[in-house]
Structures are given as C-alpha cells and as structure tokens.
Write a structure and sequence with these properties.
Elements: H1 5-20, H2 28-31, H3 35-51, E1 56-62, H4 66-72, E2 78-83, E3 87-88, E4 93-94, E5 103-112, H5 121-126, E6 128-138, H6 149-154, E7 159-164, E8 180-185, E9 188-194, H7 202-215, E10 225-230, E11 235-236, E12 242-247, E13 251-257
Parallel strand pairs: 1-10, 3-7, 4-13
Antiparallel strand pairs: 1-2, 5-6, 5-10, 5-11, 6-7, 8-9, 8-12, 12-13
Length: about 260
C-alpha cells in the first residue's frame, strides 16, 4: 500500500494513544472516507508493533452486524490484524494497562490447518482445523468511541485483546450459523445472540476476510486465528466483573478485567 504524510500523521496519533493510554481525536480529518488509506494507516501501526517484537497470528472481522453497519453508514465488514501480544492466555485474567475504554463481545474463532491462497468458499471451509468460543475485548484509541468506518479501520478495527476457550469442534461437528450464545456478567445475562447475527453465518465472515486478505496480498496462513465477529451486542468490560460466554453445543469462555 502507498502511504502518505497524512497516513503517517494518523498512525502517529493512534500510536501515541496506544502508548500512553490517553485517547486521541478521530483521524478522519486526515484520511477522510478513504478505506484504502485507512487500511494503509492500520498496516503502518501493525508493522511498527511487529518491528518492536510482536508477531502476526491472525485476523479479526468487525462490523458483521447489520445494525452496526447501518449506524456507521457502511455495507461491508472490516478487518484488523491479531498479534500474539493480544492473546490472553491462562485463566482469562485480562490486564487493563493497555486498554482505554474496553468493551467485550462473544464470538466464534476459527483456527486454520492450511494456508488459504485460493479463497474459494469450499477451500476456505476445508482449511479450518477447528472452532472454539472466544471473547474479544474491543477498544478504541479514539476519544469516546467517536468513530466512523475509516477511524475504526485505521485503529486496527478497534482491536484490543482476545481470549479463546478450551473447547474445540470441527465444522463437521458444529454448525456456526445455528449457534446460540449467552453472555453473562457476574452471572447475570448481559447479551444474547446467534450465529445468524454474524453476517448470516460466521463462515461467511471467514470467507470474506480470506478473500479480502488474499486481494491485499496477505493471505491467511495455517495456524492463524480468525475472530469471525460478534454473535450479540457488545457490553462494557469493567474491572472485577466476571464475564462468561456460552455457545451452546460448542463450549464456554470467560474473562475478568484485573482491577489494578
């Protein structure tokens, strides 16, 4: 992607917010409605983090809900890049020191067994190793979540952190479109949703990002994780609250935000 001084300025604004934990102003004043420019800014930020030692481990799909698409005036999803430093391992305790205004949502994650150089839908399905329930902690470096489509793309699709469940199933064993999800906060139901709430089928989100990534010259690779998009409304992620998402027939995943 060709970058310009305005792309670098937008990246610098977002980078400072990430480093300091202090939100910044939107970057749409610099990049306007240019989606390609927004992805160029995103790539600048990812490359900077890779040069500092992070490793690319997958992608996340965002804007898979029709309601959110309508809110932002778009008719397509977007994607961000997952880095190894975003993966919360172990007991699901999330450190909040890198977060500004976190929210959390339940998703189905796909883990790939094969490279996807040809993003034909059938080949994409065949490349899936297994599915697992996931929680994505979304966050915005932009003040008060005052975002348009280009703001969120430039900000790595408002990515923060993610947690994967222990359960695994193949596409032969579990049908993502039929998923029924319940998300609770401290035992109280806070969000519900279905696989159909994610582009009609989480597999459709996987196919979309496989095709988009291939078109941009960064095809999906074996071992990568793909967060396919929210199964229900996101909720605030507050310190000390225990969050659990259960995807019926697939399994559970939980997280708690460290109060420190």
């Amino acid at each position: 992607m060709i970058t310009t001084n305005t792309h670098q300025e937008a990246d610098g604004r977002l980078a400072q917010a990430l480093q300091t934990g202090q939100p910044c102003e939107p970057v749409r004043d610099l990049i306007g409605a240019d989606l390609d420019g927004a992805y160029a800014v995103q790539e600048l930020g990812i490359q900077r983090r890779v040069e500092a030692g992070a490793r690319r481990v997958g992608r996340k799909v965002g804007l898979t809900s029709p309601a959110v698409q309508q809110q932002l005036g778009v008719d397509q999803p977007d994607f961000g890049v997952l880095l190894d430093e975003m993966h919360v391992t172990g007991d699901g305790v999330v450190s909040g020191h890198t977060l500004i205004a976190p929210r959390i949502e339940a998703e189905i994650a796909f883990v790939l067994a094969e490279d996807i150089d040809d993003p034909d839908p059938q080949l994409v399905r065949a490349a899936v190793d297994y599915l697992t329930p996931a929680l994505e902690i979304v966050d915005s470096r932009i003040r008060d979540w005052d975002i348009t489509i280009t703001d969120t793309i430039a900000d790595n699709a408002s990515s923060g952190l993610y947690v994967l469940g222990a359960a695994r199933a193949s596409l032969a064993e579990f049908t993502p479109a039929d998923a029924q999800m319940t998300l609770t906060s401290n035992g109280q139901i806070a969000s519900r949703g279905t696989g159909a709430d994610c582009l009609g089928d989480p597999v459709a989100a996987l196919v979309w990002v496989a095709q988009t990534a291939a078109a941009l010259g960064r095809p999906l690779r074996a071992g990568e994780v793909v967060l396919s998009g929210a199964l229900g409304p996101m909720i605030p992620f507050r310190p000390g609250e225990h969050i659990e998402a259960v995807v019926a027939g697939l399994g559970a995943v939980h997280a708690v935000l460290n109060q420190e």
